[in-house]
Recover the amino acids of this structure.
């Protein structure tokens, strides 16, 4: 179940729009042990700041809060653009926020190839939101396993997605 403190933050961000709601989710679910220190995530990907990945990370460098904020903002904008491109039906801010966080976390390619996308684009909003809960596995040591952090994040995504 979604935590009370997270729920309060999400509801407070609701009036500010989808990017603000997604930003609350990212901040809650992507904290590294030390924000600007690169680390390896549960599926073996070099990550820094608020879940930023990519070839632009120097694993030996500590990044500033300003650099982390810039990456988070750019990554959120990229995820939002992908959602707007791939989902061709109207979404409310909550639905869009859930999909932005999903795309931020798992990438536009996963959204593009998903049953979730097909359901949303068929205007099956409840079915599309329900599909979020299927995305809880990651590959560790070559084996697909359920990751508790993803279970919790998808529960939060689904709760957000179902808000009106």
């Amino acid at each position: 179940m979604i935590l009370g403190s997270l729920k309060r933050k999400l509801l407070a961000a609701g009036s500010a729009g989808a990017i603000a709601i997604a930003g609350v989710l990212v901040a809650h679910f992507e904290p590294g042990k030390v924000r600007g220190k690169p680390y390896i995530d549960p599926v073996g990907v070099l990550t820094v700041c608020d879940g930023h990945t990519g070839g632009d990370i120097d694993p030996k460098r500590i990044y500033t809060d300003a650099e982390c904020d810039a990456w988070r903002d750019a990554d959120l904008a990229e995820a939002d653009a992908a959602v707007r491109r791939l989902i061709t039906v109207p979404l409310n801010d909550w639905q869009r926020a859930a999909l932005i966080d999903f795309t931020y976390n798992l990438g536009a390619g996963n959204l593009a190839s998903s049953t979730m996308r097909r359901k949303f684009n068929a205007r099956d909003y409840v079915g599309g939101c329900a599909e979020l809960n299927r995305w809880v596995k990651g590959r560790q040591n070559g084996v697909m396993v359920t990751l508790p952090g993803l279970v919790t994040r998808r529960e939060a995504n689904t709760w957000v997605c179902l808000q009106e």
